[in-house]
Structures are given as C-alpha cells and as structure tokens.
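FW: tagging you since you asked about this chain on Friday. Here's the raw sequence from the shared folder, copied in full. Didn't touch anything.
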Amino acid sequence: MKYSSILRVFMRYFRERRLRWFRQSFPPEACRTIVDVGGTPHIWDMLKYPSAISIINSDTRELALSNGYTTAVADGRMLPFPNRAFDLAFSNSVIEHVGGWNDMERFASELRRVGNSYFCQTPNKWFPIEPHLGTIFLHWFPSLLHQYFVVRYLTLWGLINKPSRATAAQSLAEIRLLTRSELERLFPDARIVTESFLLLPKSYTAVRRESGLSGNQHWGLPRRRSDS
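HL: got it, structure written out here
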C-alpha cells in the first residue's frame, strides 16, 4: 500500500468535516457557478453539490474521470477566465504545491480575480504533523529534509514509498507549507478560519464571502487578520 492511500484514509475525517462547513457557508443556491482550482472530481462527489462545477488541474491524470463535471487542463497561476467569472473560486490543499512565494502570489491573485467569493484552504506549517511526508517536527528543520537519509528512513512517506534520491528531491521541491501570517499576506481581503485538532491549529482557510451570502460561519473560530 502506498503512503497516499494511508493518507487518504486519515484525512477523510478532516475533509468531510471541512466540507460540511463549506456547504453551510456557501449554500448551492448562492453559488451557482464554481471553479475548483487544482482539485479533482472526488471532493464534489462527496459533497453532492448541485451547482455548475468547473475543475481546473495542471495534471491530466487528476482529470481522467470527469464524472460529469466540466474539466480543463490549465495553470492555476494564469487562469483562462475573465474577472469575476464564477460565484466562487475554490481550492483545497493546493496552494502549498504551486511553487515559491511569487507563484503563490500569482495563484492567490487569480483566485481573488475570477471568484466573487473564494475559499482557499492550506495546512498549517506549525502543526506538529506534516501530512505530505508523514513526519513529526522534522518539517520545521528544512535543512534536515534536504538530506536523503532523513527523508528516506525517518518519514513515513519514505519508509513506505522507498523513493529514489531524484524522486525525494522532486517531492520536497513541490511542498512549501504556509503560516497564518503568510496566508494573510496572500489574501489581504480574507477572513482566516482556523481548523483545529487536539486544540492545535491544523490548517487555515482564507475566505471571502460576497456580501449577499448567508450561512453558518461558526466552524472552528473565524478570526479577522487583526485577531491574536
């Protein structure tokens, strides 16, 4: 069994809880058109969301089974849509994979541009468990993770997948976890919502809700940028 299969089982609980809150906060009647940037049909199959969903991904393999949704291969940093083309721009655990800071700025800018509202979730860098590698605390010391022995033998991902040096280096290059303050800088007009586990902030979601939207915002503890 690959590490990704184990991770999906572990993350299903958190994703289902997050999506329940999402559906309450962004009811289908208020979000008739949605673009999911970097997503897959799986989330929308779970949600059974009746709106018109367009799924954008740069990896054709992720869109192999469209399941009836509109899909397109495109770069999330340069979306082929006009301003405010969708009621909602959605992204779940993607922005930490798009590249360096400049790439993240472009990605965030595109979400803000094409959606009247947006929802962008990402894991918290300072949560003790790093989900992509399956390790505790080591991701706080990037110099250690640049050592092949550490990645190969001291992470659950390395022990299970047995990556080559090249594969390990490529995988690490594709992950850049964000802090809350960094997410605030990327989305200056957002409300940052905290998702907690064992009283620790596990992930953050940048949310901009069009003024006409109604719905439950009390998932976790929504905080404004000025909150401590």
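FW: The chain has two domains: 3-129+177-223, 133-174.
HL: agreed, and The two ends are 42 Å apart (CA to CA).
FW: great, closing this out.
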